[in-house]
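Form 7-S
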Amino acid sequence: MTDLKTRVTEVSVLLGGAIVTRTGRAKLETGSREIWVRGITSNASRDSFRITGEGAATITNFDVIKQTKAIIPEADVSALRDELDELEQKLDEIDDQLKINEDRLNAVEDVAGDFSETFGRTFAGGDIEIQKLTQMDTKSLELIRSIKKRIRELLDERKDIVNQIQVLKHQIAEKSEKQLIKNTYDVRVSLDVRKTTEITLNVVYQCSSASWEPTYDINLTATGAKVRRIAVVRNQTGENWNEVDMVVSSARAGPVEAVEGTPLILREYVPRPSRRMKESSGGGAPMALHAAAPMKKRAPPPEPEMEIEEAEVEELEGGISRYEAPAPVTVKSGNKRPVDLIREELLSEVQYYWYPDSMMEVIAENEVTNGDSALMAGEAKIYADGEYIGETSIPFTSPREKRTLGTRIAHDVKAEKRLIDKTIEKAGLTRGKLRRKYVYRLSIENLSKKGIKIEVVDRIPHSNEPDLKVEANIDKINADKHHLGILTWNLRIPSEKKHTIEYEYEVEWESARAIYPPLP
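Output:
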């Protein structure tokens, strides 16, 4: 039996999972041999294990065995032990300080006592004044008080540290008794070695606790869009991926199901009788309780709308994209990391849009045509000529599908809407009625050095009421599209040129009626 030391060498990260390859090497003698690969994460799917290898040997069998171990969280206990050592060191220092101060106190008290005993004889001989005794007593008392105060502080500090030490010892005892249960997989591989050789063994398994999400950096220009594809890889497998060869794939780890259609059968709805109706259809005894005060029956609540049984719908990508990381990648368990995939340049065209009723300024946006590979749904940072303009969410985009990105204020196009005439009439044949005439001018000036395409959308009033009329010469307005008063012009304006649109309309209504929303 040989325990083979392995490490994670390859990882293929899928949408909702990862395929992990562990590799190890060993020199084996001729004959039947048993190889053990131990400590594989319990997040691996037991049915997904596969064994491959290289060398002059044949794999005859392999088993996947679940192992359960009880472990003590030594890291937590060691941290507590370090803290306990520091506190015990402080306690020793405090004890030393207490001893020093107690010795000082005894010494001061001895000196004061000796001075008092000898002072009488010295004073009687006339060698010392009485003030010296007073000064000595004062200094001695001050020094004694100071030393006693320090001793009290040290005792309080010592008591606090002793309490902390007791708490830590209790915590260490508790954590030492606790055990964590750790589950792992061991793989036992049976080999028939034909000759003494060095073999390479690969253990491949799938984990569901890993995934990746696409993000994008998109730099928009007048004629193109530079797209940087990034995969944010998450590793929650319980195993560190150190310097592994990584592949990012748009394949899904789970199964995909094609759901067959089921009939949608409509039937006449027959409401179920309410509880009160059921009681009223019974014998007379139960109703006798309510005979004295007949109550007005409430209408039953409305029945809910008919529910239609629906299947869950999942949009499936037409093709699977596979990206190999250009260099080894490290992702620790419990972490995530961005991994650069590819950079590509897509076709793009700047378009301008202006709706003067709600927009003070013209906006610009890029119509980007996707290339030959699909863009997965994800977040994107958008730049215009290298300047950051914001973030957006990109839905799934098929090959060669078009998307509008990078909506921003266009500083190179100036636009203005102006009311140039407003006439109010009330006379002659229109007596009893009001008539208003409006004339507007739209001015769009291209200040850039290139010609532009711009869509201009404006509106005039629209009414379906016979007593409220709106008249406009649509042919004269020359809009490319009009519907319910919404006018659309698709214009091409050369560089440093100005385009003007003028239109007019009249509104007529009974003077006694109020119009909503009010006219300008």
